[in-house]
Amino acid sequence: MSTLEIRKLNKSFGALTVSRDISISIGEGQCHALIGPNGAGKTTLIHQISGVLRPDSGHILLDGQDITQMSISRRVQAGLGRTFQITSVLPSFTALENTAIAAQAKAGSSLRFFRDASRETALNEIALSTLQRVGLADRAAIPAADLSHGELRLLELAISLAGKPKFLLLDEPMAGLGRSESVALVALLSELRGSLPMLLVEHDMDAIFQLADTVSLLVDGQVVARGTPDEVRADAAARAAYLGENAA
Amino acid sequence: MDRSLVTAAVLFGLLLAMPFLLPLIGSAYLSGLIIKAMLLAIAAISLDLLIGHGGMISLGHAAFVGVGAYATAIALENGVDDIFLLLLITLAVTGLTALVSGSLALRTSGLYFLMITLAFGQMIYFTLTSLAAYGGDDGLTLWSLATVFGSNVLQGGNGLYYLVLGTLFATWWGVYRISRSRFGRVLRAARDNPERAEVMGYPVVRFRLIAYMIAAMIAGVSGLLLVQHAEFVSPALATWQRSGDLIVVIVLGGLATRNGAILGAFFIVIVEEVLGSFIHEWRLIYGPLLVLMVLFAKGGISHLLMPKGAKGYAS
Choosing a second label site near B242 at 20 to 30 A (CA), which of A119, A128, A221, B209? Predict the structure, then answer.
């Protein structure tokens, strides 16, 4: 059964069509990569999946549940985790608090007004073990505003994981990372891959070849090629050679 | 031990002892002044929940003090004088007003939120001035006040003083608890980065609306007590200048700090009284004094009382 299924998604802004009949299906334990030149409509597609934008037509299903009309927060509640292209954390919260409040969203009601949340051991344990998983445990007590860029990218991932997602949307997770940091993150993501299906938008082709089971190539809002990374690379090279498209 | 708890203990200890100390100085006038400061502090603490913890800068918060005061006054005029019933009416009316205005205002944030709360505040102010049956522009002097189980112990003197002090304590404690709770944490997350809070799975507007209603209801209760103290209501309670005063109080005292609103309220009331007793144009000094305070006491009065190492970001 597929965990994220995109069915015939269409979206236009006036005369500009940014998504044309996009269908993508990502199964259990799979990592699917979305590639394409700038302006191909990758970000618009991500926005439609995460709920920032609504498609004009088509459906998005998460674990069989139609989430097309849900609000952003409902989708997260339904199990859609995501990381941002531009790091987005809570700067005045420590790394632990950032992760704990993400876990809180999945651990009962947040309409509790009296108990000290920072002393809820269950939440803090989830937070700490998630930080451990991404290798940030020794930075748990540091405010996010004082973390380095590389650490923030990891925290970003930890926040998404703490919400116990069924599916993970990764929007350029390698953005701005140094070589060694990228390698570490790829290793971490490939560990996660088996247990957590993901859609990866990334420019780093090395990362895609290591992580992705399947790839979709998006050009002008359309999926023009799909298959294993090798197939798509061959296809994309052929298109570039014959059609002069600036693909991949 | 946490220095802010010591400060709080000293503050509340002094307030608790005041009715016994004041007769020694021989001044009923002073006790009125302290009640005035405590009422200001109650409203300011509730606004701090919005501004300090929630990042929602409202310029119409005094309107809820006005709504609470008028709800109480109108109920009293119509023969309701049981304080519990009055409290219930005040909470219901201010909560409902906040639900309606908040649902609309919270579609915006930042400067637009400030403008729309200002507009709602003024609408409420003009509505109150048009209540001809209840005094209109001039306000209304009340001939009957709230009773508790039929007794008039809360209508002045120490009974009223301790009622106000108890409410101040409950507000101070309650808002502090809320700020540390799961709910308060989500509210702070939404202040820090609303987009992220949303993508953590929190419907930000709903959380903000609940905070807005809680803050409005607390402000309404301060309005109820104000009626009981002043035996008078007027639309002036709800003007936007009053809302501005509340912002000054919490900024001076220290945003999102445990004691900031109380310290700020007492500071303002005392400075007004002291300066006002010396010169008629006291506002000429008051203005520059506020400028100096904001420039040199960043983080507010409560941060001046903190040890050097502990002046981190208040959260």
Answer: B209
- The DSSP-derived string for B229-262 is HHSEE-GGGGSHHHHHHHHHHHHHH-TT-SSHHH
Q: Which residue among B178, B189, B195 places its CB closest to the CB of A101?
A: B189
Please write the tens of the pLDDT for every residue from B187-209.
999 999 999 999 999 999 999 99
Give me the domain span that covers residue B146: 3-306
Name the CATH superfamily for A1-79+166-248: P-loop containing nucleotide triphosphate hydrolases (3.40.50.300)
Predicted confidence (pLDDT) per residue in B148-159, tens digit: 888 888 888 889
Predicted structure pTM score? 0.92
Instruction: Say if B312 falls within a structural domain.
Output: no
Give B201's contacts in chain A (Cβ within 8 Å): 73, 76-77, 102, 105-106, 163
Query: How far from B61 is each of A117, B49, B136, B167, CA to CA, in Å?
Result: 28, 12, 21, 18
Nearest CB neighbour to A89, from listed B178, B196, B204: B196
Q: Which two tokens stand for residue B12?
A: 């509340």
State the ipTM, two decimals.
Answer: 0.90
Q: What is the 3-state secondary structure (H, E, C) of A45-82?
A: HHHHHHCCCCCCEEEEEECCEECCCCCHHHHHHHCEEE
Residues 21-60 of A with CB under 8 A from B: 50
Looking at residue B191, which CATH number applies to its domain? 1.10.3470
The answer to whether the Cβ–Cβ distance between A88 and B196 falls below 8 Å is yes
